[in-house]
Design brief:
By secondary structure, this protein is an alpha/beta fold. It has 2 domains: 119 residues, 3-Layer(aba) Sandwich (Rossmann fold); 149 residues, Dihydrodipicolinate Reductase, domain 2, CATH 3.30.360. 36% of the residues lie in helices and 27% in strands. The chain has 10 helices and 14 strands. The strands form 2 sheets. Strands 8-9-10-7-11-12-13-14 form an 8-stranded mixed sheet, covered by helices on one side. The protein has a 6-stranded parallel sheet with strand order 3-2-1-4-5-6, sandwiched between helices. α5 packs antiparallel against α10.
Amino acid sequence: MKVGCIGLGDIAQKAYLPVLTTQPDVELHLQTRTPETLRRVAAAYHLPEERCHTDLDGLLARGIDAAFVHAPTETHPEIVARLLEAGVPTYVDKPLAYDLAACDRLVRLAEDRGVSLSVGFNRRHAPGYAQCLEHPRELIVMQKNRVGLPEEPRSFVFDDFIHVVDTLRFLVPGTVDHFGVRAKTQDGLLHHVVLQLAGEGFTALGVMNRLSGSVEEVLEVAGQDSKRQVLNLAEVVDHKGQPSVRRRGDWVPVARQRGIEQVVLAFLDEVRAGRTISARDALATHELCERVVLAIQEQAGPGAV
């Protein structure tokens, strides 16, 4: 099975290549426009020169069976469209694009061509989060905070807050009939945002503060007089009277803890089986992110980008 990895930045090197290079039936091909990075990464995994490509044409010429796209977001529409038009099942880092119309075009292209398109929402596969589906979820609160990183609203929401948005969508136990956003924007930069989703019997809150003084990710689900916390995707604390703590095992790889390994293997299994993966649900997350951006712009007033 020939698999292409397009883009060799931090996320590819830290999360995806350690998984892809351990699959016994995967013949991995690398593609980046930076020759020095290509040589260094190929040498680290002992990949021969014929599996290294500096352009997409060269990669496609090798007849790849699937592709992982880890290039910068602004290049996603062109790269993903080329892959889909070539009939290559494609996994792409979130987001599909910064522009909702471009996201929609890619999903429609995949459907028209009957080609798999999968978006990398790995938290749905992270054990601590996936197991929350077994817990009562009358109240869901997720925070994903940063230090000193205010940013332009669209990139803030689509590059990072999208994980919070998608996790809330994954965990809400019913139909959402209420949507609300509050945010602080200063000098065109978004400092923090709070998203509220609610429906019959449940409320979900998503928070991101880029000036929080702490790098953290905390998920809480509660209901029926019990609560579960997941701290930085690694530590699970169940509260029912007395708290009980489950920590990540010493030998559990970070890629497995964060759901990267699981989402990669699930995608490859579907490709091997010849089943088509739809990105229609992922598009719904992008649509919700667009609503968040528009709400932030409306609150910021005229001239907001």
